[in-house]
Amino acid sequence: NKIILISSVRVLGNDFNRFNIQKFSNNIDFELWDLSFFTHKKKILNSKSNKDFKTNNILKQITNEKKFLDYLQNLDENTIIIDLFEIIFNRKYQKIIFKNKVKTMKFNLGPIPSVQRNTIQKLYEFINNYNYYVKNILKKYLLNKYFAPNYYVCVSKFDIPSYVNSETIIIKTHSFDYDKIVNKQKPKINFKSQGKKLAIYLDEGVYGHPDISYNNLKNYCDEKIFFTEIHNFFNYLSNNNYEILIAGHPKINYS
């Protein structure tokens, strides 16, 4: 049996370390297909450079749709495709998947579990990202045909969409950072206080996260306001006897 993970977002070298892909692939026949070179041809420039990352027998960087279709044609019922996005629902790809009886698994994971949102919250989200939702509604009905995958993996019951039915095996799991946090030893920080207190800022990518661009979403905040307020806050801490350490986001290009 073979497992193939497909991603429309660019796969970086540090992703192999973050998700421990090399160790995972030692025990099974596993491949990772990076489709970003034709699904997000222009937007891959927003990601960090891959110049130090050499492809291997696990990662396939598929540069055009024709090549992707050829790869799909070679799959059979002994293969399962894991989809992090909604690639398998594209009518063109889906036709080949059904014809070859390829099994499918849809992932819907995140750093934190989803929560139930009320009508006002949903309406606010729709208005704030109007273009994104209009585009996806059009894509849903014109390009995509949703079907029940063989497996559906999620971190919350609120993540389960309407197309999942009784024939789908639902796998409930925890957030993808849980194991890392539980198993990781308390980090050692080389900090000589010299009478100062320590403040650590973790950049969560509120501004400039490449996923925002990939999904055609608006930034959650104004660039000028965000960095002005962060700067003012750091000045406040510094003036109150704090040493500040900044942990950068692994996917953001700060250059």
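Above is the first protein from milestone M3; the second protein from the same milestone is given next.
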Amino acid sequence: AVIRAVEQFSKHGVFPVKGILSSIAAYNMPGLIWLLLPASLIFSDPRWISMATAIPLNLLAAFILYKLSSRLMHSNLALVCVITYCLSPLTFGWSRSLWAQHYLEAFYIIIVYFLVGWAIDRKVCYGATAIVFIVYATMIHFSALVLLGAWVVVWLLWRPPIRLSRMLLALLVCAILLTPYLYFQIERDFQDLKAFVVGKGQLNENMTTPKQSVEDNAHALSATIKSWGMNVLRAPKELLQLLVANFIPINWKANVV
């Protein structure tokens, strides 16, 4: 199901605004699908897609784990921690898996790194960055929402600095990430979010799948996002053409005179 959702983008250009159905018959957020999109543009085999996503993410987590561990212990012991993490059966196992929970392990390490930098080093931007990673981890699997509680605990115990401008920027990024899924949920009367909150499926027998109008609206939103992205990519080229067509001839004439 994950690969079919990913292929909707890689083969048909449909940007995913929702994830796959969870065990409680509710649609997940599209965080895992988005995470797999870059690899899906190169590979078609699910095993290669998962490994091409998990291995770089694991290497990044291992590097951050070394930096975090070396703060608290000798560098040799920090290196042992990294080797243990990289060679653990769990890390090897989820590098070939498409289960959303398995990708949270690396995100937890990244989030802890930013929380430590925020609490100990008093870096304002780290607290805001941690919120963005927590929100995206929640988009991969809803259980990561508990990390917001860890963020609050860190603030209560260490009272790290908070700057309003950084927090507003982080919240803006979070709003952009959540907008496609929330738009999809508005059309479904937030059935899936209610199911995640209460831990029980809210879909009745007449609403096991999205209505056709909901799917049409989701596809329309996907087309809008795709069009906006293409316009952003084309903007530098069009700007260059504008400069070549207008500014360069004028500047050449001025130099000739």
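Note on the second protein: The two ends are 67 Å apart (CA to CA).
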